[in-house]
């Protein structure tokens, strides 16, 4: 028994060490740095300054705007991507022909690296030579300054994110739809249930765990929105696309104010947890219940 | 038998290792010494690649050039600077980074490595490599002599019988005339938040007699000069458009916009300019005093303080910034920093913009020399962006900029 337990620990040791090295240590280091004035180029001369970084952050209008922009972006992107992903999944599921081709082609945007996506859209949205403004011109509209107009920049980045990540939601939800027992549909049809009733009483309850997973993953991911903003707008115009990650990058990475950037990161982690704790609890609760069954 | 086998294998392994060590030490004497350059990507790398072979042959060296995007370069160099043995032997730096890099000891003192300040370098460029600015020891040499110029589409101006504007008042008037005619945008601003809008606005601010800081490092944006300059900038936007770099170049070059500020390398390639150019107007209006307005934006190069090959790196730095190298590099997109190269008759005949660029360099202005310039630029850029977007009034934006910058400088 003893040797078996020792063997189990030996097998787990590499993973535990990796977890400590890549997650636990960086987390502790980040939290401890957030209470210092650590400036990377100043070497080891950092000093403990208590909660001064947090105070400064919460008094900084730009940081507060970055939080608001990020939360707004997260709520809009996650709800639209999930709804669209579900709609497309239902549509593809109901198709008799062309499923395979559509499944693969729909996934292409989510396979592209975010930087590539940002650069492609930068070219397409160009005021002068971009294809989008050319196309709009044929219909007598535009040209629009998508990335530098304060009324358009946020929506443009939101649109690009939806374009890229709706296929991800589609993929997971489509897989969940495949797992719904056919017998339930057949029984409902025999009982004379309509399409709406079948969806709300059979499809939706069956795919709820996956739906929550999609929401959880997209919530975490949209909070980390960075590449598109950094490449396309730099947080502007007038800070309308400034996100928390862009703020952290400018202060903590580009300007090397490690302490200040760490404090902003801790706040961001707290926010992500606040928005995802419900889903995480549901997921853990769900798997524990499954385990007890 | 088993023990004998183990002993045999051990002996063979030991002998192999020793032989390996011997062979590696015997070949290392002839192996070239490798120098790694952390460089700004693009034409700078192409220019260096064009001349490096001569140095490699003369010094039995191997030059590896890593071309990086500006923000990436700053980040990588900064992170590497705390290592005992650095990954880079030579480092390129945008000139506003020099105070921060100088303070952090990222560059080796060039005088101690036998590299002396050469009078042939344009003074305004050479001053950027000293820490403290202008008066201190030499830590980097000017590698690329960028300076902002005023670009215009001659056909559009001629069509409306307009001469090249000499003041910002004339620029606004010309822009209004062209915009009203429907022939194209009168002026293109580069209003992306951050470095672009700050670089685009400061020459206008300087022309109005403004200074970002007073002698005690108090912000001076919220001033008469600041308000007039920002009003001019917003008027220019009203008489034109707000584009990013690629669209600025194509619109002015193709005659869909009349005027813009820009860096030479955007419009001029291999001696051919896609738009006409002139020094940036140096006055707000005809009755105002002249001011230096051409923003200098040199790329500097220095020896990394944690390089293991400082002497050889210093030799390469001397080589790559020499008159001979700069003449060759100019043919491959390099931007000279030496007067003798700009005045070379053969090159001047091919690169017609050299006299204008030299004049602009000689009348150039460096951005304030503070270790906190990146943060200042960030704060100012956000407020300027708010002003042109109309989310803040000119007064509010400048007051906020002043407040934010003063907080940064505390």
TrEMBL record, chain A:
The chain crosses the membrane at residues 7-29, 73-92, 104-124, 152-177, 198-220, 258-280. Pfam families: BPD_transp_1. It comes from the Bacteria. GO terms for biological process: transmembrane transport. InterPro entries: MetI-like, MetI-like_sf. It is a multi-pass membrane protein. This is ABC transporter permease. It comes from Paenibacillus campinasensis. The lineage of its organism: Bacteria, Bacillati, Bacillota, Bacilli, Bacillales.
TrEMBL record, chain B:
Keywords: Signal. It holds the Pfam family SBP_bac_1. Transmembrane segments: none annotated. SUPFAM superfamilies: Periplasmic binding protein-like II. It comes from the Bacteria. This is ABC transporter substrate-binding protein. It comes from Paenibacillus campinasensis. Residues 1-19 form the signal peptide. PROSITE patterns: PROKAR_LIPOPROTEIN. The lineage of its organism: Bacteria, Bacillati, Bacillota, Bacilli, Bacillales. InterPro entries: Bact_solute-bd_prot1, SBP.
